[in-house]
Design a protein that fits this description.
Layout (H helix, E strand, L loop, with lengths): L9 H9 L8 H8 L3 E5 L4 E3 L8 E5 L1 E7 L5 E8 L3 E2 L1 H6 L5 E4 L3 E5 L2 H10 L1 H27 L2 H15 L8 E2 L3 H8 L3 H13 L3 E4 L2 E4 L2 H5 L8
Antiparallel strand pairs: 1-8, 2-7, 3-6, 3-8, 4-5, 4-7, 9-11, 10-11
Helix pairs in contact: 1-2, 4-5, 6-7, 7-8
């Protein structure tokens, strides 16, 4: 059982993929796709790659990853959160590098696959190509969910989204995932009032998701928080 530099065996990666994103493929095909990759451990707040870099393709072994776009004046918008077992970068294998930045929200581990090998297999095997087509469509659906969420999300869901975005984009240097924001500014950002936001923060504290102090909201469980984001099926 060969092991890569991150301590995970290729068999571990294959089991993760075969039990999730690539369950429709024969196991031997998944093994061929996963061969030759490397593990990268990424600390909280670190940029995994930028829009200017060549295409990357990975599966998240553990942690939480944020995919976002930014503007020349420094504003950012998150387009996707990627969790354990999910794929990162599939559309770029087909259309080239995407105009996004990728950042670790928590300490994370990613298995980067051999892009040339994966592309060659997809070009030879229609079943593999179909799986990548499905993955690309799911990413389109993610974008549609984000657009709908801006309209349909509850105040609590908007607060969770804004806290995650703030904490991810402004690292504090103390190893904690912290959003530097007061209740009034948070209310203004999510289109609500201070009293409602204060109640939401109380609920999040009661659920052991955050710890608050004046001008600061520390996120205690980013992965669990991310599951509160708006979704049409939840």
């Amino acid at each position: 059982m060969p092991r890569n530099e991150g301590g995970n065996s290729t068999d571990d990666v294959v089991a993760l993929l075969y039990g999730g994103a690539w369950a429709a493929l024969p196991r031997e095909t998944v093994e061929r796709l996963a061969t030759g990759g490397t593990v990268r451990e990424v600390a909280e707040g670190v940029t995994v790659y930028t829009e200017a870099e060549t295409e990357r393709f990975a599966v998240i072994l553990h942690g939480l990853i944020r995919v976002y776009m930014n503007t020349s004046d420094g504003r950012e918008v998150t387009v996707r959160y990627v969790r354990t077992g999910e794929l990162l970068g599939a559309p770029a294998l087909i259309a080239g590098p995407a105009p996004v930045f990728v950042q670790a929200v928590t300490n994370s581990s990613l298995y980067f696959m051999d892009v040339a090998r994966v592309k060659a297999l997809a070009q030879r095997d229609a079943a593999v190509a179909w799986v990548f087509a499905e993955e690309s469509v799911h990413r389109l659906y993610d974008v549609l969910e984000e657009l709908a969420g801006n309209t349909f999300a509850t105040v609590r869901q908007r607060v969770v989204r804004h806290l995650l975005d703030l904490a991810s984009s402004h690292t504090t240097g103390d190893g904690r995932l912290t959003a530097l924001v007061n209740q009034q500014d948070l209310a203004n950002s999510v289109g609500s009032v201070r009293e409602v936001v204060a109640r939401v923060l109380h609920e999040l504290r009661e659920a052991s998701l955050v710890r608050t102090s004046p001008g600061r909201v520390e996120i205690l469980d980013a992965v669990k928080m991310s599951r509160e984001l708006w979704s049409r099926v939840r």
